[in-house]
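Customer ticket, subject: "Can you confirm the structure for Uroporphyrinogen-III C-methyltransferase?"

Message body: Hello, I'm evaluating your service for our small team and ran a test protein. I'd like someone to confirm that this is what the system normally returns, since I don't have a reference to compare against.
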Amino acid sequence: MSGLVSLIGAGPGAPEYLTRLGARRLHEADVVFYDRLVDPELLHLAPQAELIDVGKLPRFHKVKQGRIEQLLIEYAQQNKRVVRLKAGDPYVFGRGGEEGERLAAAGIDFEVVPGITSAIAGLAAAGIPITHRDYASSFHIITGHRQKTNGGLNWANIAQQEGTLVFLMGMSQLPRIVAELRQHGKAATTPVAIIQWATHWNQRVVTAPLAKIVSTVRQQKIGAPSLIVVGDVVKLRTVLQAPATPLTGKHILIPAAQPSRLAQLLTDRGAFVGRFERSTPQPLPIKSPNFTAYQTLVVTDIVAFAELQQQLLAAGQDLRVLAHLRLIATSQRVAKGLQKYGLLVDDCMPLAQLDLTAPSLLIISAAPAQSTQGATWLATYQHRLPTQDQLRLRQYQAAIFPSTQAVADLFNSVRPSQRQQLQQLPSFAMGEQVAAALIAQGVQRVYGSQPSYTAVLDKIEGWCQA
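Agent reply: Thanks for trying us out. I re-ran your input and got the following:
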């Protein structure tokens, strides 16, 4: 018996271009083999999977193609749900056909989950339609890499095509592509666009006539990965490119969450979002206290309260045992979380404003619980820290922290070199306590806002425009 191998196209770059079936297969996966150009955001969709980087650089293959195909077979033979995650579409110069052949020969069940090819979506992201009734009634997608055994391209045929020409993986061959097109009759004035990192936060676009595109690329220092677009449709970019917003091209780091309203709001305002891993709760066994001995219940953490409720239920009790207690939340975030349990707090105040020497206080928190004279601390769970191996902090222009726990999760799980980078990263705090936590971690540029998404988005947009 074998598992299923899914050859999934991740789309051109931006994570939201992934199909719904692709997202579901990632969530179900036991192991994911992913390419270099796949956005790390997509790996958050496979929380239980083993992640294996098989990415390839020009002229350097970390894992040879034959070995990748053998690994797909070996994992599937262990009855695993296997995902081969590729940028673009698996069957558009993605070697998906070769992998499918090997899987079929080995008797492995597999499927292809199509992706949106960058040859179309990448142009659209730059304001260039691949076809247009007035400019191009056809298009031709051509690889910049050919197997030596396949011979050369038919440049006489390619140059005479009236439709749009799109070259993938062709930047190292750009001078030759231009020379061949011109030699075989393509006009020197033909519009050309180079789109680097299409649909990513660092997308760059340059345009020039065919005769000048090589020098323009050198001057602007455009490199791979890039699309080369040749044809009159390039003229439409000045009309069709999306208007810039204050957050256009900004790469913002936020805590991982599925789904994330903050991520959606940032994306809708033109930003690109990356996420850092969060800690996961590990319940701690507790001895149920005598609740009648207390007058006030202080909740510092909504997860801690959820764990308390679960342990009460396991002991044959419910929230009615808390009915006589005055209820205090230490933040508005906790207060809103308690509302989901049908509980309205009597007050909302930080721990610093409470009399922690009062023996009538029972404080619900995560471990480690503080030790104070008077109040009783009850830790119902502890945080299991993640690793942040996928985090490339130099790619971000700012970070947003909704809670003090998000601050702790990130700073307690990074390497010393990453910590230094974080301390230099402009950070936006949703609330005074979050700002204080960032300052305590040595962050040099902290921008506080009210603890709401609207407030923090307005704050970061103002910062971008300053």
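A couple of notes from the result: Residues 281-384 form a domain with the Rossmann fold fold (CATH 3.40.50.10090). Residues 65 and 95 are 9 Å apart (CA to CA). Feel free to reply with more questions.
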